[in-house]
UniProtKB/TrEMBL annotation:
Name of this chain's protein: Protein kinase domain-containing protein
Matches recorded under Gene3D superfamilies: Phosphorylase Kinase, domain 1 (3.30.200.20)
Database matches in InterPro entries: Kinase-like_dom_sf, Prot_kinase_dom, Protein_kinase_ATP_BS
GO molecular function, one term: ATP binding
Binding residue positions for ATP: K51
Keywords: ATP-binding, Nucleotide-binding
Pfam family, any one: Pkinase
Annotated TM spans: none
Domain spans labelled Protein kinase: 22-82
């Protein structure tokens, strides 16, 4: 793999993401509290972005105040087919 082509580590058992039909791909971004992955959502046959938040890194204020807003806003974002 080349630079910037990191992928989520594979596990010997199905992950929560696998159970819900998501296949994680390469890392496409980093933030203070988490990492954003390119992913494929098999049920919708769509490419998506998944942000995985580290509860160890995130402050209580972020988890209780800002994360719920971010989740709500994320549900309203849509991209055209293609």
């Amino acid at each position: 793999m080349g630079r910037g082509q990191l992928t989520a580590p594979s596990a010997p058992y199905p992950s929560v993401m696998d159970q819900y039909g998501y296949q994680l791909g390469k890392v496409i971004g980093h933030g203070s509290y988490g990492t954003v992955y390119e992913a494929y959502f098999a049920k919708q046959k769509a490419k998506v972005a998944i942000k995985i938040i580290s509860k160890k890194k995130a402050s209580e204020d972020y988890l209780n105040k800002f994360l719920p807003r971010e989740i709500q806003a994320g549900g309203t974002v849509g991209w055209g087919a293609g």
